[in-house]
Amino acid sequence: MRRCWAEQWVLRPPRSGTRDCTCFVEEVSRLQFGRVLDLPSATCGARARDAQVKKRADDFARPTDTPQDGDAVLMTILGARRLQSYHIGLYVAAETPQVLHWMHNIGAALHPLDQLDRIGLDLEGIYAWIS
């Protein structure tokens, strides 16, 4: 059985030591795909980051119907719709499409997109990075 590129990241802390989903996506994108990103960080607070995501979304990604490995997977936290608390991960093309993302309580994790609700997340959309 062929090993998936994302498996090497599961349960591995990010090298930067930052425990933030955006920093994790930036790190994996850089090391795995050679893509340098400058995403809004949660270090400024969830509401400020969410405002930046809305304001700058078109600067770094576009919605896609044909996702590729490493595309952005934007999620919201179930029950936080009013606050629109965003969470981001990377698309993993597999028999069952998955997302590689950072979870503050366990580190890097891989979850099937069709089961995000089981971990309290809702799929907002999949986006292709703008080079």
Main sheet: strands, sense, barrel: 6 strands, antiparallel
Low-confidence stretches: none
Structure annotation, total helices: 2
Q: Rg from C-alpha positions?
A: 14 Å
The assigned CATH architecture is Alpha-Beta Complex
CATH topology-level name: endopeptidase fold (from Nostoc punctiforme)
Overall SS class:
alpha+beta
CATH class: Alpha Beta
How many separate structural domains?
A: 1
Order of helices and strands: HHEEEEEE
Sheet-strand content, in percent, reads 25-35%
Shape descriptor reads globular
Note the gap between the termini: 32 Å
Sheet with the most strands: spatial strand order: 1-6-2-3-4-5
Mean pLDDT: 84
Q: How many beta strands in the DSSP annotation?
A: 6
Short structural summary:
By secondary structure, the chain is an alpha+beta fold. 21% of the residues lie in helices and 28% in strands.
